[in-house]
Design brief:
This protein is an all-alpha fold. The chain has helices spanning 10-31, 45-58, 63-68, 78-266.
């Protein structure tokens, strides 16, 4: 082992840092945000790249023992070992922070480009709005001319309509006069019919009243006859009862006399 040549860690460190830069570009530069968020347990390439980035960051200090232990007992390689360690630390520091600076610069450039694009879009929109306003003004002028023409046509039509309205009013007045006459005649006819109906109704009511009076008189007579019959019957019943009582009294007297005679005979 002492006779073997010291291996350079430049290629190993460079590959690790390249993969770290790739992980940073795949993760924070595109998909993930710069503040804390839940752990991504999916199987997407971004998740694998970021997990590898954290793995390389966690094992960053594990590289150092391998570099130091390569020729720990070889004093000739101390300068080479120191150079490798310094190169590792400086290269890792530069790659990480230069990457962040590059990302920030790219973001600033993108923001400036976005602002320029927005300004260009605003300028184009202003030009389009100005053209639209010109078109609108032209359209408004044409519309004003059309409106004036329409007003003139409308006035002519109004004159014609006024004449037609006057004619229509005259016709309507004539029709109303005829209708009034017809309505008056109809009202007269209806009044005559109503008077005749009232007379008939009064006659019918009088006839019905006469019939009711006659019926009432008949009913009263019937009631009186019935009452007379009932009175006569009551008188007859009372007489019969008196006759029966007299007969019973006479029989009782005769029986008492007979009994008295019998008692006197036997005594």
């Amino acid at each position: 082992m002492a006779s073997k040549r010291t291996h350079s860690a430049k290629h190993y460190v460079s590959s690790c840092d390249v993969f770290s830069l790739q992980s940073l570009a795949l993760g924070w530069g595109t998909t993930y945000r710069w503040f804390c968020e839940p752990v991504d347990y999916s199987e997407t390439p971004e998740a694998y790249a970021v997990s590898y980035f954290y793995y390389t960051q966690r094992n960053a200090f594990n590289h150092m023992p391998f570099i130091v232990n390569v020729k720990r007992y070889n004093t000739d390689s101390e300068e080479s070992l120191t150079q490798q360690v310094v190169f590792y630390a400086v290269f890792r520091f530069l790659t990480q922070y230069i990457c962040i600076l590059c990302i920030l610069i790219v973001l600033c450039i993108l923001i400036v480009l976005c602002i320029l694009i927005v300004l260009c879009i605003l300028i184009v929109l202003c030009i389009l709005i100005f053209l639209c306003i010109l078109n609108v003004l032209c359209i408004l002028i044409v519309l004003c001319i059309l409106i004036v023409l329409c007003i003139l046509i409308f006035l002519c039509i109004l004159n014609v309509l006024c004449i037609l309205i006057v004619l229509c009013i005259l016709i309507v007045l004539c029709i109303l006069i005829v209708l009034c006459i017809l309505i008056f005649l109809c009202i007269l006819i209806v009044l005559c019919i109503l008077i005749i109906l009232c007379i008939l109704i009064v006659l019918c009511i009088l006839i019905v009243l006469c019939i009711l009076v006659v019926l009432c008189i008949l009913i009263v007579l019937c009631i009186l006859v019935v009452l007379c019959i009932l009175v006569v019957l009551c008188i007859l019943i009372v007489l019969c009862i008196l006759i029966v009582l007299c007969i019973l009294i006479a029989l009782c007297i005769l029986i008492l006399v007979y009994v008295f005679i019998l008692l006197s005979m036997y005594s």
